[in-house]
Structure formats: structure tokens, C-alpha cells
Amino acid sequence: MMRPAPILLALVACLAGCASRTPAPPPTQNPATADAAYWLNQPAAASVVSDDFTTLWRACRRATIGHSFTMDRVDFRGGLMTTLPLVSKQFFELWRSDVVTPYGVAESSLDTIRRTARFEVRRRDDGRYEAVPKVVVERFSFAERRITSVARFAEMFTVERTEGGRERDRYGGDLPDMYWYATGRDHALEQHLAAAVRADLRS
User: Fold this and answer.
1) Sign of the CA dihedral running 87, 93, 98, 100
2) CB 39: neighbour CB atoms within 10 A?
């Protein structure tokens, strides 16, 4: 039979070694990824080509409005069409079509997410016109309030935090109370927008 004392000592030594090990540092995050411009500069996931600029432009507009977005900037001469940021639909909003994947619906139902769509239409070297849809996904961040007294519970609902309560990021700057930050692109919605434009051009 094996003696329990040596086994117990070996187990204690292993646990002590694991406890003394320095934890791995968190992965370095690039602050630029929180900016929508970073994701807009990424390659396109879908595109539509047409011989006529006006026909393609109108098809892009109809596809954007058909996916529940509201037009914001319409630069016909520059070939740029953007929408207002739209808070993404939740699971019970079956009449909306701004989220096209089950994961996206679950995410926007559990957190506050918004999407901004845009079309970039440019002329190609062969003389035809190409429309590229891009959809940026952003998440809402709201600073937490620490309540240490029952008499100060109403401060949970104030917009401005009290003096000295501001948090700072790792670069030493003040973090705002409420802000949106980009988390990526919705490639599935971009492909849906491109498919809607193609269907419009064929009709």
C-alpha cells in the first residue's frame, strides 16, 4: 500500500507551485479598433457592379431603406451614401431587418448595439460602376456608479458623475460617462444589402 504522507506532500508542493506562478498578462488591445474609421478601411465583404450609375445608386438607396435604416448623408457626386446610427433590433421585433443572423439578434437583445450602414459607389477602370456596402457595429458603454450609502442611491440615475469619481483609461485620459465604441463589421448584413441591390437591378 502507498503511504498517504508522501502523496499529500507532493500534492501540496504542486498547489504551491501553481499559486506562485505569475498570471499571463492580458492581450494588448489596439485603441484604434474602437474607432469606426478603422473598420471602414477594411476590405469589402460584398460588392455589386452595374453599367449605369443612377440605376445602381437608386437600388442602393432602396435596399438601405428596406433594411430599416434612415438616410443621413447622400453625396451623389462623391458616390457616398450613409445612414443614421440605428439601435439594432431585439428578438421580438420581427418586422425589422437590420440584423440578419441569430447571433446578432441575441447580442442586440442582451446588450445595446447599433449599426450604421453606408454605400460607396465608384467607377471602375472598365467604365462600369461598383457599389460596396459597409456596416459598422458599435456597442454602448455606460459608466457604473458605486453606491456606498442608501442616501445616495439616486445618483445611479444621474448623467454626470460626482467630482473625483471619473475613471481613467490606461493612457491617463478621462473616460466619458456614456459613449459608443466600434466592435467590428457586420459582413452578413453587407452581403444581404448587396443581394438586395442585385435583385433590384434584375427587376
Assistant:
1) positive
2) 20
| pTM for this model (two decimals) | 0.72
The three cell numbers locating residue 42: 477594411
Cα–Cα distances in Å, from 167 out to 33, 114, 143?
A: 21, 24, 9
The C-alpha cell 440605376 sits at: 55
pLDDT tens, position by position, 125-158: 999 999 999 999 999 987 666 666 665 656 555 5
